[in-house]
Write a structure and sequence with these properties.
The complex is a heterodimer of chains A (584) and B (396). Chain A has 584 residues and is mainly beta. In chain A, 7% of the residues lie in helices and 33% in strands. Chain A is built from six helices and 33 strands. In chain A, the strands form seven sheets. A six-stranded mixed β-sheet of chain A has the order 13-12-15-20-17-18, with no helix packed on it. A six-stranded mixed β-sheet of chain A has the order 24-23-26-31-28-29. In chain A, strands 2-6-11-10-8 form a five-stranded mixed β-sheet, with no helix packed on it. In chain A, strand 17 and strand 18 form a beta hairpin. The longest helix of chain A is centred in the N-terminal third of the chain and has 10 residues. Chain A is globular and about 55 Å long. Chain B is of the alpha+beta class and 396 residues long. Helices cover 23% and strands 36% of the residues of chain B. Chain B has eight helices and 13 strands. Chain B has a twelve-stranded antiparallel beta barrel. In chain B, a hairpin with a 3-residue loop joins strand 2 and strand 3. Chain B is elongated. The chains are: A mainly beta (584), B alpha+beta (396).
């Protein structure tokens, strides 16, 4: 009943844009348990001068906020009104695997006209989200936020709280975007280096990049050339406001529901205190800017007051565009909008050559010899914007020395690079943020707010390589697309504790997401304070490690959360054995 | 980028105009913030919009870069100031700086350089091929260090074989269909590509001419059916040379495809050729297509083409191009001499209105060499021809 009411409501803010009768409403309705209906249907969407087809849930983009309560049981009914199969994955929620919503892994999917009901106890609290796990539907608008209120007191006290769902809208169909990525190298990149650019690249640098057949500007695969960046479904022209009274503590729950865009978040003039990452509370850490990858969530608390208004800037990592909202003390109040900053360039570290003494121009071996403790070896990228200066030493380095790979990595056309020295880059604030003049966030600054119980040392380590070929737009784990390993899942014994090392043999940052679990980032924190996350960015040419206690039996998706990387093959199944034996 | 900034300013004005109504939902928390576009009476909105626009114009919006950044970003609070030094192993921080290129060592006088050396030593051990040495956790004194954790495959209790937990719940049939769809959905797919690399009108001494050079494929990441066609001629005369190729193309390296198949000549003495070739991207971003041909008359020829895109701006691209034709023997009926047959060098300047649609102008010089030049002269043709070209490059 409520559904019909919602679906039939006149899209009020579309009044000025009647061209799109039946367009999805921008923004978020709230749906609370215990019984929630989610109707997935074709729709249309417009923002600014872009308009096109979309998929809306309960008639809006993003879809409704699922406001749940820890310790209760919720019934989520997914009604499929599309003409194709659909699904909804409850991203970050601990659920029985068969309700996790990944067609082909956890369940068969939801056929057109059918309803799938997921009923499960809510075992946690925090900020999460939901999205389609079928094809490329997520890009079309099938996503929304989840907030789970804790059973007890919330350690984060705020006078007001808001949700900021970051995403993208494109007039192009998601399948067309993928097609362009496959066919045209750098198709969406209009910040490429040219004869007339202002990039701090020497002629030698430029030749080095050309020699590698790679682009130093390959930061994000899809840019503002195709995307309008959305905050709660609102484009920069849509005037989204978050109201506050001066002096209030305002909690902002950031969710990156985009398909391909890492965002740099800042509110000029207003420091942000990060209190939660991926739904799990962390020790408060104050920053001026943070990068959020696709699929991550961060909760921050701000105390606006001195200014009448503040601009919330969600700048795409490639700095081709931004999403905008205003924190306003009164409706209509506005603050200045900062201009886009210069686009960043990939660095030596992004090429997998961290710590190499390229400055001396010595051979690779000499460059890696840090035993002398020579500080000169550390000066690459020391605040200069290029970070690629003095790459002359590159000439002796091999970009694809496959002898460095473990035996189980398949060497083929789908692997165009091997990181020479893939160091742990947990302390990296993200591409383009290593030289900003204010405080940024990185994974080493995250500490679990309360110590967790797990105290075991992992019984084994495993290593997985993130591999790809930019030119062919192939992406995979260990050089093998999912089609090559569909019958060979990554297996864990029940309750086994394993340290997983992800090595990024590509020049792109990959947000890697494991379904059904929280892993602990190995970030230098004491064992019991390692932050819990469901998604970890592995920086280009670097590595990241997490400790996993495999205590959720069943089959779980494990993939790069960049939608088109997953679509190109960067997907695997993780199987956690059933403690009772049987099929798993 | 400037365009975006301007439109943002416009949006600011428009957005402000659209939000006069006061917080109807002021009490709400954790839900949609107010977006009150619909509440503005149209004329009032217009008036406000004008006012607002004026206000922003008055502001000039020549806000210096960084003016909106927090003023509190004093050096003391930069980057590592926020790090918890009491808990953080300094060795790890040193390595952190080494890897990320942060400026910390310069403004962290309390840094213990001996520990840093230690960290560097650990990195140095990487050179021996050991992975363990590099992990920061290895530098900690906790039992949780990598070195203490063996690199092992999954234990027997982890089970083996395909993932089948879902089959036990939903049934094999339902899962199999979804599983196949998932594999298809995460495999890159099959696609059709068609490119008109050169479709051009050629102005030259004598009759103006035309040329086409198209190619395309259908296939997946590794195996493709590849087709190519080239031809040229002068207006008012029969087509001089035209051919089609049908090839199987297989990715054999990150940047190269091996291609093999047949070529059919459509003009002149009828010839069918077997083709073997390599197409791909060589260092310095040259697109190269090299192929050898053996005709049904036993003639062996070869052709090497190379082109490179030089971006002048994001859309204006200069493309030098060269093509060399070789022959193992004289083929008098084709006017081909043994050895170097022809050389063609071109320079084309195109403007990408879209990536897929780029008109161009350019110049193309052809030389027939050696015996081929003699054949040309014998037929009353100039062995050296300069073409001024205008054309279109497109793909879909």
């Amino acid at each position: 009943m409520g559904l019909l009411g919602l679906a039939g409501a006149v899209p009020a803010w579309a009044r000025g844009a009647d061209l799109l009768t039946g367009a999805a409403r921008k923004g978020i309705d709230e749906a609370t348990g215990p019984n929630i209906d989610l109707t997935v249907a074709r729709s249309a969407f417009s923002t600014g001068n872009r308009r096109g087809g979309a998929i809306a849930v309960n008639g809006s983009i993003p879809g409704p906020l699922l406001r749940l309560k820890e310790g209760t049981t919720v019934r989520l009914n997914v009604h499929n009104q599309l003409e194709e199969d659909t699904s909804i994955h409850w991203h970050g929620l601990l659920v029985p695997f068969e309700l996790d919503g990944v067609p082909g892994v956890s369940f068969p999917g939801v056929k057109p006209g059918e309803t799938f009901t997921a009923e499960f106890p809510v075992r946690q609290s925090g900020t999460y989200w939901w999205h389609s796990h079928s094809g490329l539907q997520e890009q079309a608008g099938q996503y929304g936020p989840i907030v789970v209120d804790p059973a007890g007191a919330d350690p984060v006290q705020a006078d007001r709280e808001y949700i900021v769902v970051l995403s993208e809208f494109s007039e192009m169909s998601p399948h067309t975007i993928f097609d362009k990525l496959k066919k045209g190298e750098g198709y969406f990149n209009y910040n490429q280096n040219t004869w007339t650019d202002d990039y701090p690249l020497s002629g030698e640098d430029r030749r080095m990049w050309a020699k590698m057949r790679m682009m130093p500007t390959d930061i994000l695969d899809v840019s503002s050339a195709a995307y309008t960046y959305l905050l709660n479904g609102h484009g920069p022209l849509d005037g989204l406001e978050y109201l506050f009274r001066p002096g209030e503590r305002v909690r902002l729950r950031f969710i990156n529901a985009g398909a391909m865009t890492f965002f740099n978040i800042r509110i000029p003039g207003l420091p942000m205190t990060v209190v939660q990452a991926d739904g799990q509370n962390v020790e408060p850490v104050e920053v001026d800017e943070f990068q959020i990858s696709v699929a991550e969530t961060y909760d921050v608390v701000v105390t606006p007051g001195e200014q009448a208004a503040y601009t919330l800037v969600a700048e795409s990592m490639d700095r081709s565009g931004m999403g905008i909202a205003t924190l306003a003390s009164a409706p209509g109040a506005r603050a200045a909008i900062p201009p886009l900053r210069d686009p960043p360039l990939l660095t030596m570290a992004d090429m997998g050559m961290s710590g190499m003494d390229h400055g001396s121009g010595d051979s690779a071996t000499a460059g890696m010899d840090h035993g002398d403790g020579d500080m000169a070896g550390m000066d690459h990228g020391s605040g200069d914007t290029s970070g690629t200066e003095g790459m002359s030493g590159m000439s002796g380095m091999q970009m694809r020395d496959t002898s460095r790979l473990p035996a189980d990595v398949e060497v083929g056309p789908g692997l165009d690079m091997v990181a020479m020295n893939p160091v742990d880059r947990m302390g990296d604030p993200g591409i383009g943020l290593d030289d900003v003049l204010h405080r940024t966030l990185d994974y080493r600054k995250l500490r679990a707010l309360t110590p967790h119980q797990e105290g075991r040392t992992p019984s084994r380590r495993m290593e997985l390589h993130l591999t790809g070929n930019m030119e062919r737009y192939m992406w995979s784990f260990d050089g093998k697309k999912f089609s090559a390993v569909a019958d060979e899942p990554i297996r864990f014994a029940y309750n086994e504790r394993v340290r997983v090392k992800l090595v990024n043999d590509t020049m792109m940052a990959h947000p890697i997401h494991l379904h059904g679990h929280f892993f602990e980032l190995v970030n230098g924190a004491p064992d019991n304070r390692q932050p819990l996350k469901h998604t970890v960015i592995v920086q280009p040419g670097g590595s990241a490690q997490f400790d996993l206690t495999a205590d959720e039996p069943g089959d779980w998706a494990f993939h790069c959360h960049l939608l088109y990387h997953m679509h190109a093959g960067m997907f695997q199944i993780v199987t956690v054995a059933n403690p009772a034996g049987g099929e798993a | 980028m400037k365009k975006v900034a301007i439109s943002l300013i416009a949006s600011l004005a428009a957005g402000t105009a659209a939000t006069p109504a006061l917080a109807q939902h002021a009490g709400h928390t954790t839900s949609e913030p107010q977006q009150s576009a619909e509440q503005a009476a149209a004329d009032e909105a217009a008036a406000q919009c004008a006012l607002e626009a004026q206000r922003h114009r008055a502001m000039g919006h020549q806000v210096p870069e960084g003016a909106c950044e927090p003023e509190s970003a004093t050096p003391g609070s930069m980057d590592h100031g926020a790090m918890d030094h009491t808990e953080m192993n300094h060795g790890a921080m040193a390595a952190d700086a080494a890897e990320t290129g942060m400026t910390m060592p310069m403004d962290q006088p309390e840094m213990d350089h001996s520990q840093m050396d230690q960290g560097q030593m650990d990195q140095g051990s990487m050179a021996t091929g050991s992975m363990e040495g590099m992990d920061h956790s290895a530098m900690q004194d906790s039992s949780n260090s990598d070195a203490a954790i063996p690199l092992l495959p999954a234990p027997p209790e982890a089970g083996s074989g395909p993932a089948r937990a879902a089959i036990a719940i939903w049934g094999a049939e339902a899962m199999e269909e979804a599983r196949e769809a998932l594999i298809r959905d995460t495999d890159g797919g099959m696609r059709l590509w068609f490119q008109g690399d050169r479709l051009e009108y050629r102005v030259r001494a004598g009759e103006d001419g035309y040329l086409w050079d198209v190619q395309g494929y259908y296939g997946g990441d590794i195996n493709k059916f590849w087709f190519k066609s080239e031809g040229e001629g002068s207006f008012g005369e029969p087509v001089e040379g035209a051919e089609v190729q049908a090839l199987w193309s297989r990715a054999i390296a990150p940047f190269f495809d091996l291609q093999g198949g047949i070529r059919q000549d459509l003009t002149g003495p009828e010839r069918t050729h077997a083709v073997i070739g390599i197409q791909g991207l060589v260092p310095y971003q040259f697109e190269v297509d090299a192929a050898a041909f053996v005709s049904n008359k036993g003639d062996v020829t070869a052709r090497i083409e190379a082109e490179v895109d030089q971006r002048i701006t994001q859309r204006l691209i200069l493309q030098p191009r060269a093509e060399i034709a070789l022959s193992a023997q004289d083929i008098p009926e084709l006017g081909v001499g043994a050895g170097l047959d022809t050389i063609e060098a071109g320079l084309r300047l195109r403007y990408e209105f879209a990536r897929e649609f780029a008109p161009y102008i350019g110049i193309s010089q052809e030389w027939r060499i050696g015996d081929s030049a003699d054949f040309a002269r014998a037929e009353g043709e100039d062995p050296s021809v300069t073409n001024y070209v205008v054309g279109l490059r497109f793909w879909f």
